[in-house]
Amino acid sequence: MAHDKVAVRKILDRIKSEGRASLSAPEGKLVCEAYGIAVPKEGVATTAADAAKIAAGMGFPVVLKIVSPEILHKTEAGGVLVGVKSADEVQKGFDTIMSNAKKYDAKAKLHGVQVQHMLVGGQEVIIGAVTDPSFGKLVAFGLGGILVEVLKDITFRLAPATREDALSMLDGIAAAEILKGVRGTDPVNRDALAGMIENVSRLISDFPEIAEMDLNPVFATKSGATAADVRIVVDFNAAPARYRPSHEDIVRDMNRIMKPDAVAVIGASSEEGKIGNSVMKNLINGGYQGEIYPINPSAVEIMGRKAYKSVKDVPGKIDVAVFAIPAKFVAQALIEVGEKKIPGAVLIPSGFAETGNVEGQKQIQEIGRKYGVRLMGPNIYGFYYTWKNLCATFCTAYNVKGHAALSSQSGGIGMAIIGFSRSAKMGVSAIVGLGNKSDIDEDDLLTFFEQDDNTTIIAQHCEDLKDGRAFAEVAKRVSKKKPVVVLKAGRTAMGARAASSHTGALAGNDKIYEDVLKQSGVIRARSLRDLLEFARAIPVLPTPKGENIVIITGAGGSGVLLSDAVVDNNLSLMAMPPDLDAAFRKFIPPFGAAGNPVDITGAEPPKTYQNTVRLGLEDPRIHALILGYWHTIITPPMVFAKIMVEVVEEMRAKGIEKPVVASLAGDVEVEEAAEYLFDHGIPAYPYSTEMPVAVLGAKYKWARGAGLI
Amino acid sequence: MAHDKVAVRKILDRIKSEGRASLSAPEGKLVCEAYGIAVPKEGVATTAADAAKIAAGMGFPVVLKIVSPEILHKTEAGGVLVGVKSADEVQKGFDTIMSNAKKYDAKAKLHGVQVQHMLVGGQEVIIGAVTDPSFGKLVAFGLGGILVEVLKDITFRLAPATREDALSMLDGIAAAEILKGVRGTDPVNRDALAGMIENVSRLISDFPEIAEMDLNPVFATKSGATAADVRIVVDFNAAPARYRPSHEDIVRDMNRIMKPDAVAVIGASSEEGKIGNSVMKNLINGGYQGEIYPINPSAVEIMGRKAYKSVKDVPGKIDVAVFAIPAKFVAQALIEVGEKKIPGAVLIPSGFAETGNVEGQKQIQEIGRKYGVRLMGPNIYGFYYTWKNLCATFCTAYNVKGHAALSSQSGGIGMAIIGFSRSAKMGVSAIVGLGNKSDIDEDDLLTFFEQDDNTTIIAQHCEDLKDGRAFAEVAKRVSKKKPVVVLKAGRTAMGARAASSHTGALAGNDKIYEDVLKQSGVIRARSLRDLLEFARAIPVLPTPKGENIVIITGAGGSGVLLSDAVVDNNLSLMAMPPDLDAAFRKFIPPFGAAGNPVDITGAEPPKTYQNTVRLGLEDPRIHALILGYWHTIITPPMVFAKIMVEVVEEMRAKGIEKPVVASLAGDVEVEEAAEYLFDHGIPAYPYSTEMPVAVLGAKYKWARGAGLI
Predict the structure, then answer these.
(1) Collapsed DSSP state (helix, strand, coil) of residue A148
(2) What distance in Å separates residue A491's CA from the closest CA in chain B?
(3) Rounded CA gap, B474 and B453, in Å?
(4) Which residues of A touch B409 (CB under 8 A)?
(5) 0.85 surpassed by complex ipTM
(6) Domains and CATH numbers, chain A
(7) Model confidence pLDDT, tens digit, residues A273-301
(8) What 3-state class would DSSP assign to B418?
(9) pLDDT score for A502
């Protein structure tokens, strides 16, 4: 569909010149027509015969309305007829309306009668658009009437939306089934609806001054979709686009910052208890092998290293400067960092925007931009990059190398990440504090971790996304390669926001984050614990090759709860083929239940777990296993754990790798068994039937989003 | 509203005698009228004048229909007119219909014309009834049309429902707001709707042969509610009521079983590895102080205790017999238990219904009933009652005394309970395995724990409720005194069931459990971990006296996540009064945020936590506190924990007791701090912002249900 940008530009220019904030209904229609958005057909007739001809051309029924600049209250003047069903009736109607109008106001100028196609039947839907401060232009879709108003059943996508995005919106509402036709009604024309969504999304992308838009209702029938009412709100003072360095610049600078060969510590100190002392200790004791330059105007040497008055006095190249000085000294030191051409500053100090010092933060942002210094923070704990043994932080050191990269906007949550990691012995590649996000934010980290070979999963806690659109674009690309998990805090606090349009009012909740993160392939964690557990388990699990999941359980009771969790996590239990059912039955007692879950019953020896799990791994129709272990004297926890690892490793040696997770029901010895299993590639959880399935579900969500299954 | 039982009985008797399974529309109407359920007014006219008079009496518009036994297809015969709007039109319509009918079939006997009030406007709703195999008669309510069909937005209550139950149903659907009037429509008449729900629920309770019922649609307007269509399905072969001992009998027998003075072990053994040996060891080593009688025909003495061939040979009284013999010997031994007048048998052996031996299970049920022996199991691990140091089980012993009583239907879940309890040092009063539930079930346990002074909370895992109605009745009473938490497994496995009515088809999901458990005041756990954590934390928390919750946090990030959790758990943050806000501000840095959460910021000393928490406890307007701790050098975890306990104990000494929960963000030392806090009455969780709020939410749910706030 060709879009007539010139026509729209002309209308918008007029609106702007007239200082208006919204379009009239006829203007809205013209804009729609220019973008291939169907609106009811209409025409103005000056004679009865003309009216009948126009009506016949659009099909019946029609609505007739007097056209007269003097008659503002058409209905009162007897100037409106609805549901006119034939050419004959139209002719009569024309005459009636004209004579009514004359009677009503003899002096009124009568331009004729407007003939408008009357929309009947079909499903009422709403298509709209909003401008979000973080995500920019979004297109919205929902069912008209009470469903969208009362149940807030609406879905959003970044604009412009592809045809695929648009089609996914039709399935993205709770009442999606209605569009397929219920109670004997026809299904809607999905192509026509998706096409209209696409066109709306293109329109608002082409014309940023279109702030909000409502097509409400749109009548969707089996043959097409027509927007009965159009409302367009404009804003010619749109916010300027946010500055973004180029992809190459981000990658180059972030690599030097995150994997530096030389670190300067501004405010390094020998004095116990000082932040500058903690940072020095963490760098040295953490085993960092690059150069460490303490910067302190009043010291000669700190912890055995020569100290410098300024970074400018350091003879060699510096990749990153860690700031451990009070806020008020940051700006001056940052200028020196810029002059020394250091690409990154890690700003631990607080005392900026978070305490109301917005100006101070703006000042350092400007310095950073001027000198090309990327800023991490301020108001952060710093960061860790384990593969360089780098603890550029004043918190405790952390050294368990692994492949999960975590970040947090909040320092408290950062401490929880470190504590959980240490407690669970979770291997991480990096932990990063983002704090006030004056510059470096989640998408910079995604861009770095995307190409960082030590990282296979990225898990981020955030409270807001300063540039949601940039994040979504980067996440969409990165999540195709590596799972991206996000815990978005402040889900419930957004509240409704003031808006001129219907769609705008509905946007004031968490649904935009929900939909856009999904559109970007991001796995959304619902809780802090989920974020942490997903980061720990997802890299351990191989990628499943299909949707067929089998539960093998010693405890029938666990089997039932695990089945519940399978449904809750949008996974599906394999319908067991008869031959496979028979094969499982060979290994289990006659009263055990095959089918799925495979219930081997509680009193079985280790061999039964071994045989059934081996079968589950060997049969190519099965793609993932969930184990339900029941602690018994005959198969104690560590015996179970060791035999499971054996089978999995035996299969791995044959090239068979499938995700296996385990729920352990038993006395405290199961805790040790769970740890052993986890260490050997089987995420296992004591006293929980939910968590093993939740982490498997997260892996599946990613694999589906990345198009791997 | 008087109910005319005689009229209904007469109609049902006729249906029965005619061998029919459902009522005709006119029969359905008569039944409705007998129970005060409004149906459209109607009458049969034999003259045009008569028709006009009848119509005027009911109000316009009306529907006119030919009445003739010969004319089956009324519309085809031109025998139906809808939307007739005046007395004049009715007269003309009468003539038209009669003449059309004559033309259509000259031989047809014409009885006249039926005049029926035509319902227009208002909100279409559905009121229905079903018979559930476990819960019996239930009444249902939902919105008509797509909402109930596509979104399954329907709610159930046990019948008969009180007025309060009925009113709660109007708020119990997702689209409840619609009933209050949206888009300028009038609100429905809540009393009329609730009255109709009550009447339906009374009708199906009075006549158990009414199996299913649909009033669909019911037109609900601001002035009343009228059922436009009635469908009633009957079943004269209803299942007989389940046998239930009297309350006194249950209490008397369960007290002897759960707190026995003398235990017999049938199948006691000296041989290591035998179940009968494990049971003996657990009894003796567990420190049980009552009599222990080993029963074994081929032993003289077992573990230092005189052995008997049969319980009948034991000289003294026995309160409970623990069975540790193969299934095939159980029946005979049970007869002897009966003859010895022992009130309870703990049937550890498997090999009954769960392995297909349904007959064997039926046999022992009959023996139990005959001799008045209550049966626990079969197919269980046994039970623990810590305050008697009683471990009547073959599993490992458990001895941490406390006030949570737990039970599980599954042995695997029982082992998880024991493992979790030991790991978390959770104090319990009892842990009970219910297994096949041939006799003793969840409501027997509720009845016992209700009057057991050592128990303050009851947490149950179940897969089904054999007598859901009995459970609901008991739970409703008990939950007023002690929190009842239920993990219902198999939530998602029920699927749709075959049903003749619309309501019946909608009942085939978990919604019935959801609604009835709520109606009974039960706190539903969503996961195994929730069941366990609720059991652990709820008894520790004092009962809140109101809904005003305040978050006090060192980490702003935790504050945001805790606020999310508050909303998720249906709790509410107190709107901070200005004077209280000012009082908090005195203790926190100028850039800290008062309001709620109270953000004291991260770098504060222990004193700040102490001052703000003391204020939160002292101010009578605040009813509960959620603490967000951030691990810093200035306030290390154990320092925080000790100072918090100090403040709480200081207040307790002054008679101030409020629920306080804590989320701890920090390095691994927070685990020890969490344990210390929990031990001192402050449920605390490391690395989780969700769990502390979830347990507080569970306590609130109970307190609200019990009418305490």
Answers:
(1) helix
(2) 6
(3) 17
(4) 557
(5) yes
(6) 41-117 (3.30.1490.20), 123-234 (3.30.470.20), 242-379 (3.40.50.720), 400-539 (3.40.50.261), 549-705 (3.40.50.261)
(7) 899 999 999 999 999 999 999 999 999 99
(8) helix
(9) 56
